[in-house]
Amino acid sequence: LQKIKEMLQYPLDTASYVKKLVNAKHKIIIISNILQSTQECLNKVHQAVEKSSVKRKILLDNNSAYNNASIEADKEEPAMAEISSNNFRY
């Protein structure tokens, strides 16, 4: 910028422009840091949701398997009782 300023017949006051650029860069860095920390927080939330979903699915699958086993056991009990009662009729 200094070389351009020296080459021009009507020199520009570049100090104010440089100051504005430095201020803009500073603001961009601050916003970038905020966005980065927000992204990290969102990633942690996403991981927590994934863990919770996996745990919930496991619990539901286990509960479903338990219910199915209970239903099968309930179906077998009357059949076993019928077999037992038939054995005593002799």
What would you say about this model in short?
It contains 2 helices and no strands.
Question: How does this structure look, described?
Answer:
By secondary structure, this protein is mainly alpha-helical. The protein has a domain at 13-62. Helices cover 89% and strands 0% of the residues. It is rod-shaped. This is SNARE-associated protein Snapin.
Secondary structure layout plus pairing:
Elements: H1 2-7, H2 14-87
Radius of gyration, whole Å: 38 Å
| Total E-strand runs | 0
Could you state the order of secondary-structure elements as H and E?
Answer: HH
Any idea what the shape is?
rod-shaped
Content-based structural category: mainly alpha
Task: Give the terminus-to-terminus CA distance.
Answer: 114 Å
Q: List the uncertain runs.
A: none
Proportion in helices? over 70%
How much beta, percentage-wise?
under 5%
Largest sheet properties: none
Total helices: the number is 2
Mean pLDDT: 80
Protein name: SNARE-associated protein Snapin
Which features characterize this protein?
single chain; 90 residues; mainly alpha; 2 helices; rod-shaped
